[in-house]
Amino acid sequence: MNASKLTSRKNRREERKKGKGSTTGQALTIISACLSSISLRSFSLPWWGLTPPRGQAPVDVVHVHVLTLKHAPGIPQRRRERHVRSVKAIRTMQSGAERMKAYISIDMEGICGIVRELETDPKKGGDAYEQSRHLMTQEANAAIEGCIKGGATEVLIADSHWNFDNLIPEELHEAATLLRGTPRGLSMMQDLDASFDAALFVGYHAKAGTPRAILDHTYSGTIAAVRVNGTEIGETGINAYLAGHHGVPVVLVTGDRAVTAEAKALIPNIHTVAVKDATGATSARNLHPKKAREQIRAEATKAVQGAKSILPIRAKTPIEMIVEFRGTYAADRAAMIPTVRRVGGLRFEFEADDYPEAFRVFYAMVTIAGDE
After folding, report:
1. Interatomic CA distance for residues 219 and 236, integer angstroms
2. Contact indicator for 199, 243 with CB cutoff of 8 Å
3. pTM above 0.85, yes or no
4. Please, which pLDDT band fits residue 14 given cuts at 50, 70 and 90?
């Protein structure tokens, strides 16, 4: 090979090296230009009407990040506008794991140690009723403590016996908020909504007509039976359907053995505590109150911890409800409700588009009918 050819090859290699260096430098220049042309802007906007998932805090602000590539060598303007601009909205809310709400509805007939109507009567009960108030408040505290231990950060307890003013406020656990007094449009379930994660029924009793059940009745002594979509239910079912309408599971029922059996038949996987075993309507074998409270505390803890494993029960819509009274005097008064049909002397039927509407009609009937 002659000298001229060797020189030519050497020159070409040097030119290629220069070209590579030039290309690399040009690429770095383009990248640098792109990076320097990016504009990042961040700002916040108020956001109203955005409903958070159940159990999470409301959304206050949406943070908007706008990333814009103003100009870049080699990229057409149209493609920059279409592909490079991005807007991202981020919802800021408190984590659901940090906030858990429990709702306790507490009655008196199912409290450990209580077997006679006189013990539940604020008008005639005297010292016996006052003792029942203390027993009721102590079981309420056991349930509240269990809820807190199970992870609840908020507890609302609804006094749900007679005129709803039985719990002794100064003896109640300070972690709970007390719902007390009347009137209440939703009675034993007032103020429960979709923000709650679990509902607990403490001190409940079996439905009217249940054998071997302490002080069995359904909302009133005038009611013989209540059926929703063909199924007879008591206060446990009536109230559980209200909770279910809001997507809230009933996770615990306490009371006598009859009401716990009633709850298990209605709500799969529910936790229960039987604090007494009735031998008749006003006679029962009772646990010691301290043991009853220990069991309620422990079971409430497990129930709240496992709330997600229990499904809410929902009544199929439209709702068909049947209410039967014990006597014609109460039935005559209930007949004043214009949206119900009287079928015979004691039976009423009506329909509703959703369960809260059905409940309000039912509760209006109970209120107007009164107690015989």
Report:
1. 10
2. yes
3. no
4. low
Any idea which of 80-89, 121-130, 190-199 has the lowest mean pLDDT?
80-89
d(CA 16, CA 266): 84
Domain ranges of the chain: 37-96, 100-221+232-313
Positions marked active-site: 217
Q: Rounded mean pLDDT of 12-23?
A: 53
Instruction: Return the CATH architecture of domain 100-221+232-313.
Output: 3-Layer(aba) Sandwich (3.40)
Burial 139-176 (b: 16+ CB within 10 A, else e): bbbbbbbbbbebbbebbbbbbbbbebebbeeeebbeeb
**What is the tens place of the pLDDT at every residue in 112-168?**
999 999 999 999 999 999 999 999 999 999 999 999 999 999 999 999 999 999 999
Distance of CA 31 to the CA centre of its chain: 54
Alpha-carbon distance 86 to 38, whole Å? 12
Kindly list the distances between the CA atom of residue 54 and the CA atoms of 57, 151, 201, 302, 350, in Å, as whole numbers in the listed order. 9, 16, 21, 21, 32
Radius of gyration of the chain (CA): 34
Cα gap 261→274, rounded to integer Å? 9
| Buried residues in 18-55 as b, exposed as e (16+ CB within 10 A) | eeeeeeeeeeeeeeeebeeeeeeeeeeeeeeeeeeeeb
Classify each residue of 70-86 as buried b or exposed e, where b means 16 or more C-beta atoms within 10 Å of its C-beta: eebeeeeeeebeeeeee
Give the other-Cβ count within 10 Å of 182's Cβ: 12
Collect all residues with Cβ–Cβ distance below 8 Å to 150 and sequence separation of at least 6: 102, 300, 301, 302, 303, 304, 305
